[in-house]
Specification:
The structure is a single chain. By secondary structure, this protein is an alpha/beta fold. The chain has five domains: 3-71, Winged helix-like DNA-binding domain superfamily/Winged helix DNA-binding domain (Arc Repressor Mutant, subunit A), CATH 1.10.10; 167-282, PTS-regulatory domain, PRD (Orthogonal Bundle), CATH 1.10.1790; 289-393, Orthogonal Bundle (PTS-regulatory domain, PRD); 395-465, Rossmann fold (3-Layer(aba) Sandwich); 487-637, Mannitol-specific EII, Chain A, CATH 3.40.930. It is 57% helix and 13% strand. It contains 26 helices and 15 strands. The strands form five sheets. The protein has a four-stranded parallel β-sheet, with helices on one face. A hairpin with a 2-residue loop joins strand 4 and strand 5 (137-141). The chain is globular. This is PRD/PTS system IIA 2 domain protein.
Length: 638
């Protein structure tokens, strides 16, 4: 039984906030409901109390033992555990191993071991290490840096894309070199010392650096230190390197040499820290003019293409320094994982799309690598810049209806501004006891007097604003904003869908063939040219457009369609897409004149398909184009 499938199920349950049926989970993983039930049994067997997954009439839910199930290692003898043990042995034995002896040690047949060696070669593809064979003896050849990258890959594979855990780290490394109990205190001390040096620490990325520091300590302990300088000069590196060496010696009992100090210091400086004012004054790091020019050009282009407010000198400088660090990491192929990549894509698809466009341009100009986790960090920079303007766009206007003393009215208005100022702007105060409700044309009306009839805009509040009043206003504001977004989405979608570009069931042929199939229907209608299909495939290769567990929205970065149109494919269950599976594929072709529609359709369409119940309703009932449109509109209307 596949440990990977079990972990995928566990990850899916952790992303759900309610019960999930076996059928919906089966569609998500591309297996049968019977397989889901067997995975649940296996997951519960990982914990002492058998409580990793709860079962009930409504389906399955992540249980109290989910953390223990995630941290449980592979059972001895499973393919992944055996592969990791074989890799560790090859890394630790520079003279190689005898295939017959290692087969006996692993308690497997020679045929099984030969198959494992094929998998080892697969893991080495694209790297500098290589597997050599001389009759019955195999050895792993590569410089120290390439061998350390393999150790890093083993540890990350143990973590299954989750956060770095000490137990997973120790399974990939040597327990006698790095004591499990020392890892937590070391991390706390490292964060504290970096703060004392004047740096702000990025906790999202520090796990990767901790991994590399631990690997370095283990390799130095067995006499495999790095020699000489490993990266370029940095004024801050010596102080950071000495600090890391001191902590490694204190917590792990290992003395790092100059090469490892410089290597680890540069990893810290390019991955996890942002210099505060004090650190910038002591150790200034200037922006490279060529990098800054490229970043500025891409920011200006993205602002124009997506009609967003990005052009700001301070923002461009921050992103320039980030890109410089990214280029330095690329020299060592030392990528940084981002545990928020999936949630960023599903929650902020438009921001992620802007980041993909910027990353694509920087790749063409500077050779910046297109790693999805690195794109996610660029998205976080973009999101931070857009947050203020997005918040301003979300503010609703409000009228306060409050008969009585002027002092009471002023007190209420100031209370509303203090508690709800990020959501609403009070533009009028009506002091009459019988206002003309129809003339109050603001988004919300906050009334201290009873109102006859029902109007979703009107929220009853007390003259002295209470917590319950604040919650009711927040709920009303959220409801109004969502209703308006979905109304705009409904109007746009009905313009762009066509019965001639609708496929059910969608063949499970892989993302490239599905893009060609759906794109071919739009091309046959004269809406797009063949180059749009190729550009869509190129965009897909940069970063998967599976923005939720159910929906992929492939599209090109260029808006070259004759008119905006969307081709829809609905799977019978699910289809493979990237590293996961989806149930609906919406190939979107946007025209130059529909830039505003791009934002409306893109973000809100993803929002609709992020709700599991809505997805299942649409997928199960969409046996024809008319049925699909009816169900989609019904879901949008709520």
């Amino acid at each position: 039984m596949s440990r990977q499938r079990q972990d995928q199920l566990l990850a899916a349950l952790l992303r759900q906030d309610s019960w999930a049926t076996a059928a919906s989970l089966a569609d998500l993983l591309g297996v049968t409901p019977r397989s889901i039930r067997s995975y649940v049994v296996a997951l519960n067997a990982r914990t002492a109390d058998g409580d990793a997954v709860e079962s009930g009439p409504l389906g399955y839910l992540a249980g109290p033992g989910v953390a223990a199930a995630r941290s449980a290692g592979d059972a001895v003898g499973t393919p992944r555990a055996r592969l990791h043990q074989l890799m560790r042995t090859l890394i630790d034995e520079p003279d190689g191993v005898d295939v017959y002896e290692i087969a006996l040690e692993l308690h497997v047949s020679e045929t099984t071991l030969e198959n494992d060696l094929v998998r080892v070669r697969g893991l080495l593809d694209g790297g500098q290490a290589r597997l050599e064979r001389d009759r019955d003896r195999v050895r792993l050849r590569g410089d120290e840096q390439s061998l350390r990258r393999l150790l890093s890959r083993l540890a990350q594979d143990e973590m299954d894309a989750g956060p770095l855990r000490a137990d997973a780290l120790q399974r990939a490394l040597a327990p006698e070199a790095v004591p499990l109990r020392a890892i937590g205190p070391f991390k706390a001390a490292l964060v504290g010392e970096l703060g004392a040096l004047g740096y702000f620490v990025n906790e999202l990325a520090i796990s990767d650096v901790l991994l590399h520091i631990t690997i370095a300590a283990e390799r130095v302990a067995v006499g495999r230190a790095l020699d000489g300088r490993t990266m370029g000069d940095d004024d801050a590196a010596p102080a950071v390197g000495r600090m890391i060496a001191s902590l490694v010696n204190e917590h792990f009992g290992v003395a790092l040499g100059q090469g490892d100090q410089e290597h680890l210091a540069n990893l810290v400086l390019t991955r996890v820290v942002t210099p505060g004012e004090h650190a910038r004054q002591r150790m200034p790091r200037s922006a490279d003019p060529e990098v800054e020019q490229a970043v500025r050009a891409e920011i200006v282009q993205a602002a124009r293409d997506y009609q967003v407010d990005l052009v700001d000198d301070a923002f461009i400088l921050r992103l320039t320094l980030h890109v410089q660090n990214l280029l330095r990491r690329a020299q060592e192929q030392a990528w940084t994982r981002n545990p928020l990549t999936r949630s960023l894509k599903s929650s902020y698809p438009m921001i992620f799309e802007v980041a993909v466009s910027i990353a694509s341009g920087l790749h063409d100009r500077l050779g910046v690598p297109l790693q999805e986790d690195e794109i996610a960090y660029i998205a976080m920079h973009v999101g931070g810049r857009l947050e203020r303007s997005r918040a301003a766009d979300a503010i609703l206007t409000a009228t306060i209806v409050c008969p009585g003393y002027q002092e009471l009215q002023e007190l209420l208005r100031s209370s509303v501004a203090r508690s709800l100022g990020r959501l609403i702007e009070v533009v009028r105060v009506d002091t009459s006891v019988d206002p003309d409700w129809e003339e109050l044309d603001t988004d919300l009306v906050l009334s201290t007097i009873p109102v006859a009839g029902s109007d979703e805009r009107i929220v009853r509040i007390q003259p002295f604003l209470a917590e319950a009043d604040i919650e009711r206003v927040q709920q009303a504001a959220a409801r109004i904003r969502r209703t308006r977004r979905l109304q705009r989405l409904r109007a746009e979608l009905q313009r762009y869908f066509s019965a001639d570009a609708f496929v059910v069931p969608l063949p499970d042929a892989g993302e490239v063939e599905i893009i060609r199939h759906l794109g071919g229907m739009l091309a046959a209608s004269g809406l797009i040219a063949e180059d749009y299909i190729e550009n869509t495939i190129a965009r897909e290769r940069m970063s998967s457009t599976a923005f939720t567990d159910a929906l992929a929205v492939p599209h090109a970065l260029q808006m070259t369609a004759q008119r905006t149109a969307i081709a829809i494919g609905i799977a019978d269950g699910s289809v493979a897409w990237g590293s996961g599976r989806v149930q609906v594929v919406a190939l979107a072709a946007f025209s130059e004149g529909d830039r505003d529609a791009f934002q409306t359709v893109f973000e809100q369409f993803v929002e609709v398909f992020s709700e599991r119940d809505s997805v299942q309703r649409i997928v199960r009932r969409s046996i024809s184009f008319d049925a699909f449109l009816d169900e989609l509109v019904a879901v949008i209307d709520g």
